[in-house]
Structures are given as structure tokens and as C-alpha cells.
Amino acid sequence: MEMSNYDSQMEFPHDFRCPISMEIMKDPVIISTGVTYERKNIEKWFFSYKKKTCPATMQRLENLDVTPNNTLKRLILAWENGLSPSSSCSPSSSPLSSFKHDEMVSILKTLNSTPFKVSSLKKLKEIVENGDEMKLDFMLLGGLEVVVQLIIQILADSADFMVFRACEEALGVLQHLPILQESNGKVVDILSKPEFMKAMVIVLQRGSKEARVYAMLTLRKLAKLDFNWNVVLNDQGVGMFKSMLELASDEISTKVSSSTLQVLIKILDSSKESRSKAIEAGAMCTLIELLPDSNRSKCEKILLIIKLLCECTNGKMAFIEHGLGIGAVSSKLFNVSEIASKICIQIFLLICCFHDPSNKVLEDMLIYGVVKKLVILMHMSGPSSTKNKMVDMFKTHCKSWSRYPCFPSELKEYLGLRQV
Q1: I want to staple 278 with a disulfide (CB 3.0 to 4.6 A). Which of 13, 95, 108, 283 is the partner?
Q2: Residue 77: its pLDDT value, please?
Q3: Which SUPFAM superfamilies is this protein grouped with (predicted)?
Q4: Domains in the chain, start-ordered, CATH in brackets?
Q5: Contacts of 127 (CB under 8 A, 6+ apart)
Q6: For residues 137 and 148, what is the distance between their CA atoms, to the nearest angstrom?
Q7: pTM of whole model > 0.85?
Q8: Distance separating alpha carbons of residues 271 and 276, to the nearest angstrom
């Protein structure tokens, strides 16, 4: 019996063993480097031996938090059930059947050399769709590296139709993996490579509708990382933004539209250069036209992007030249949410602080009720830096506005501008 147990232990995958004790893990936990350990062993390393490094990589740790690796725990239990002679579960009924495992191994080994990559990837996607155990088995077998390498090949030969199709199908496999859901440093390193990001942008520009959606959802996950977007902006910035704006306008899939806007916020917040390229791609026009029919969440995101663009001189010009920008933003002031109203005010302050806003701009702010709404806000709100900026704005443009009959007569006295 002891020999039988030893043989079963030897058949366990190396990743089921704790890197410290080399024993099968019962309570696996992940640390910040992405390595999984048996809880009692890593806690002893941290708190008994007073170590602040990862035992496997010797990387210094910023924090000592541990997260239960429930997926790996389920996989170990499933494997144990398949190997145990006393188990009522046969190997064929196990979530991680030997047949599916062997099939996955075979596909991954031949994927780079086979001329039938698309059909192989479709089969691979069917396998990983079978549950968490199969997804983790795919990761343990190095499947992520193989699939990502296929996607990157598009950079070398994007004109080859079959290479492009294989890349699109590989993206479909990625959508079924729990990437970036756990603190896995290895996964982060693989997916944040510049080559992978450039491949995503090519698919975003030239792929099928489904592949473009896959690319966008992948970028949404990667947007959580501290990634240098200049890697893709320098070469493909304008084209990338045009493709993203098309997806942001998608009225069928709110998830895709929302994800696209979230990624746009992340990119535009990273640099002023990115905002210039987005403006060149026609972002301001698209966003202003999307604003009137947007729901609360989408509206807040669009307004935030408009505000980021208006922080650039060419962004202010694009907003002013559109003609409907002031009316569209004014309609959302006080009518969506407190967050949206604050952003609307910031947009108008940016426009009015422009070197020389035209009479048309000041006139539109009166016609669309912006001035009236801001006066009400000044009466209602207490002292704040925003209120001070609004007072300065009125002092600067009161002379132009006071010529119109709809200008509030009591505003002069409120501002102490009786001579104006």
C-alpha cells in the first residue's frame, strides 16, 4: 500500500507540489509574485523565518498577502479522485479526464508545425470550455505561451490569410481563460509584451467583428496593468483610435462599448500625445454625437474622455468647432449624476479659459442654459476651488454676456460688477 501511494504521488504534476516542501498541496495560496505555495509553508517562511522574498524567485515582496488558489485546489482534488483506487469516480467521469488531457497535450505539441492551425485551435477552445480544471490544466501545460506566440506571428506576416485566421482563433481561446484574475506575475509578463499589444491593435483594425471584440475585451483586461501605451501609439495610434471609436459606437453590445470607453480613458489619461492622436482620429466628433442617447454609466465615461481631450488646445478647438458640443454637454448638466455634472462644469471651465473664446461660444452658453445653470450652482454650493474658478469665469466674460436679455440681471450685483 505504501508503494502504491508513492507511485500515485509520483504521477502528480510538478505544479501540484509546494515549491518549499515538494509535497502535494492541501491549501494552496498565491503570493504577489504569482507563485503558489502550501499555506503553512509560506506563512512559516514569512512569519517564523522573517523573510520578505519569494522562495522560488527570491524577488523582494512589497506585501506579504496571500490569496487562496481555489482553482488549483479543485484541480488537485479532481486529480486525486481520478487516481484513488477507493474513489467512486472513474477517470472518465473526472473533470480532468485523461483523454481530454492527452488530447490537449497533443494539440499543444503540434500547434506550431501543423498546417491546420485554425481547426486545432477550435478544438482547443472546445476543451478549455469544459470547466475550470481544464482551463488550469491548459495553463500548467504552457498553453498560454503557445497561443500568444501564434498571435504574435501576425506581426511578421499579417498579409497571410491563414496566419490572420489562426491569430483570430487564438484570441477566441484566450477569452475562456481566467487571465489576470489572479496575481500571476508570469501571465502579466507574457501579455504585457509590446509584441502582443501590437498584435492586438492589428486585429482591432483589420480583424473580423468577433475578433475585434475579443481584442477589445483583452485590452480591457490589460488596461489594469501599468503598461506603456506609447509602444503602440507611435506606430498605430490614429488607426487604433479610429477602430476603438467604431466599437464605442456599437449599439448592439453595451459590454463592448463600455469596455472600449474604459480603455480609451486609460490610454488618454497616460499622455497628451495620445490625446492628440485621438483628436486626429475624430474622437471629439464621435463622442459628442454619442452623448445625447447614452445611459448614465456610458455618459459619465464619454464626458470624462471629452474633458481629457479639452485639456489640449486642439481638443478645445475640436469641441468648439463641432457646433453641438456645448448643447450636448449642457443637456447632461444636473440631469445625469453628480459625477457627470462635475465633469460638465470642468469642461465649460476649460472652454472658457481658452485664450479667446469666440462670441459664438459665449452666445451658445447662454442659449443652451449653461450660464443660468452655473449661476444656480454658485448660489447653492459652498466655498470651493471650482466655485472660485466659476466666479473668475463670470468676471472675465460678464461684459459679453450682459449684452443679452437672457443674462441674469442679479448676477452683476452678486459678483460686485455694477460698473460693467
Answers
A1: 283
A2: 78
A3: ARM repeat, RING/U-box
A4: 2-71 (3.30.40.10), 95-219 (1.25.10.10)
A5: 100, 103, 104, 107, 134, 138
A6: 17
A7: no
A8: 9
